[in-house]
Design a protein that fits this description.
By secondary structure, this protein is an alpha+beta fold. Helix content is about 45%, strand content about 20%. Pfam families: NifU_N.
Length: about 140
């Protein structure tokens, strides 16, 4: 990756960290998931509202490093308005990206693409995937209702 692209990605990550989207509590959420990463202390509470198989809203609370919190911000932004299956597919694509696998070119990841460089730092992958794992767990539980 070029240094200009690295710098852009760092700016996107820091923007989401300093001005997180969808941070807060969702009072009328249909599901709440709490997860933490015991290795580094990151923790997240994810609340979302699913109506007729669509993620109508998603919010998060928590504390952690810039990677963890910016990933949560990007994830909540990305899944709002998506069908549950599409949100879960996006999570699979994100997981593949974190493992260094190529992402299909026709998939628009938006700001999430800025986290691609994290795959080079194995110790930070759990930070980036914490919110996504919480989302997967919650949506799968929601589907079983």
């Amino acid at each position: 990756m070029s240094s200009n692209l690295d710098a852009l990605y760092r700016r996107v990550i820091m923007d989401h960290y300093k001005k997180p989207r969808n941070r807060g509590v969702l009072e009328d959420g249909s599901h709440t998931i709490n997860m933490n990463n015991p290795t580094c202390g990151d923790r997240i509470q994810l609340t979302f509202k699913v109506v007729d198989g669509v993620v109508e809203d998603a919010r998060f609370e928590g504390e952690g490093c810039s990677i963890s919190m910016s990933s949560a911000s990007m994830m909540t932004q990305a899944i709002k308005g998506k069908k549950v299956d599409d949100a879960l597919m996006l999570s699979k694509i994100f997981s593949d990206m974190m493992q260094g696998k190529e992402v299909e070119e026709d998939v628009d990841l938006g700001d999430i693409e800025a986290l691609q460089g994290v795959s080079k730092f194995p110790a930070r992958i759990k930070c980036a995937t914490l919110a996504w794992k919480a989302m997967e767990k919650g949506l799968k539980e929601e589907e079983q209702k």
